[in-house]
Design brief:
The structure is a single chain. The protein is mainly alpha-helical. The protein has two domains: about 70 residues, no CATH class; about 220 residues, MetI-like (MetI-like fold, Orthogonal Bundle). The protein is about 80% helix and about 0% strand. It contains 13 helices and no strands. Helix 7 packs across helix 11. The longest helix is centred in the C-terminal third of the chain and has 39 residues. The protein is flat, with a radius of gyration of 24 Å. The relative contact order is 0.15. About 0% of the residues have low confidence.
Length: about 300
């Protein structure tokens, strides 16, 4: 297991290097000039050139990239072009709040998805199955931003006098303020997990060892939750890891709709719009590292769930 962990960590290095290069290149392909954003439309040509020299934007692309990588090796994500503040503390602070929202959404997705999938598999082609799969189809079809707006309209406006829900000016308050964003963000993943759980459970429930367990008089609850579900979770775990990345990317829209002060809003409002390259690079890099680590954790969980899997 230790050897496998080391190999996976080593394989993650080229992935992260590729991510850093793509981020660095794509950010600089954006239209617009950061120097013009800083100096304003009335700036002279000499002022713009002076700002570009100060920021290092007049240097060749590869020189800028090597300088960025040199700082990254020291844990330095650079400084904001607009405010000259270190990027790393701001990104990590906002990322913590994005992780809070993502974990809450994953809790919603896992709870609803597994429950709906198992119930559908236990009663295939029944009204329970039909209702669950219709809900899954409905959930995966609704855009995150539209669902977020509808939830805000219903609970924060129409039902506000009964629920008392409504985001504070900072976008972050008690745990109650996490409920609606988590539901909006987690619904699509819940739908995908429900459909995957149903498919794998139906396949496992027709295996011979399940028939043998039932013939021995094992209770249906034990058959489903002790024997079938554990084996059905292996392909579901793969989807779980992929959905974590989808939730991180979907957090950009959710945070914007609900004014949640996470890394998604940071990228859009303080990175992309003002052409602040270091903030965009640092934020996306932190998200990419989190995605790689989560998928590594998912791979390790395979061995725990299925003892047939060994990493020598």
């Amino acid at each position: 297991m230790v050897g496998y962990l080391v190999r996976r960590l080593l394989l993650a290095i080229p992935t992260l290097l590729g991510v850093t290069f793509l981020i660095f290149a794509v950010v600089r392909l954006q239209p617009g000039d950061p120097a013009l954003v800083i100096a304003g439309e009335a700036a002279t040509k000499e002022q713009l050139e002076s700002i570009r020299r100060a920021l290092g934007l007049d240097r060749p692309f590869w020189t800028q990239y090597l300088i960025f990588m040199e700082g990254l090796m020291r844990g330095d994500l650079g400084r904001s072009i607009k405010t000259n503040e270190p990027v790393a503390p701001k990104v990590l602070q906002r990322f913590g709040q994005t992780i809070e929202l993502t974990l809450a959404a994953m809790l919603v997705a896992t709870t609803i998805g597994l429950l709906a999938g198992v119930l559908s598999a236990m009663r295939p082609y029944s009204w329970v199955d039909g209702l669950s799969m219709f809900g899954a189809l409905f959930g995966v079809s609704i855009p995150v931003f539209w669902q977020g707006l509808m939830l805000m309209w219903v609970f924060a406006l129409l039902l506000h006098q009964w629920t008392g829900w409504g985001l504070p000016a900072t976008g972050r308050g008690t745990l109650w303020h996490l409920v609606l964003p988590a539901i909006a963000l987690g619904t699509s993943s819940a739908a995908i997990l429900a459909r995957m759980t149903r498919a794998t459970m139906l396949e496992v429930l027709h295996q011979e060892y399940i028939t043998t367990a039932r013939a021995k008089g094992v209770s249906e609850r034990a058959v489903v939750y002790k024997h079938a579900l554990k084996n059905a979770l292996i392909p579901v775990l793969t989807v779980f890891g992929l959905q974590f990345g989808a939730l991180l990317s979907g957090a950009v829209l959710t945070e914007t709709v609900f004014a949640w002060p996470g890394v998604g809003r940071l990228i859009v409002e303080e990175g992309i719009l003002p052409r602040d390259y270091p903030i965009v690079q640092g934020a996306i890099l932190v998200v990419a590292v989190a995605f790689v680590m989560v998928n590594l954790l998912v791979d390790l969980l395979y061995g725990y769930i299925d003892p047939r899997i060994r990493y020598d």
